[in-house]
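# nightly structure sweep
# worker-07 picked up a monomer target from the shared queue
# config: single-sequence mode, recycle default, output format = structure tokens
# input follows
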Amino acid sequence: QVQLVESGGGLVQAAGPLRLSCAASGRSFSNYAMSWFRQAPGKEREFVAAISWSGGSTSYGDSVKGRFNISRDNAKNTVYWQMNSLKPEDTAVYCCAADYNTLNIVGKREYQYEYWGQGAQVTVSS
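# output follows
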């Protein structure tokens, strides 16, 4: 069992930065690929980024490429989500998720992730 807790959400002005963290507890964090998904009001959940257990492989959704960055610190059992140049359309609940996966590949589908956090609200004002 893995428990995931997101933090760092809030209200930010457009073009500003914000960093989310996802702290994991339970089984060995370094055995898990980690991802971020988001869900905006009235929309389906969307994949935004993933990182392999070692950090050696990452993948991003088209809507965030070049603006956002995923990273992890296995010593701290934490994955980070650095968001830059935020836009109002980035407003969403951001959830982190974990997939037991010791390969250096990552998935982009919800069903590939076994554990989910509760989510952190990010609101971008124009």
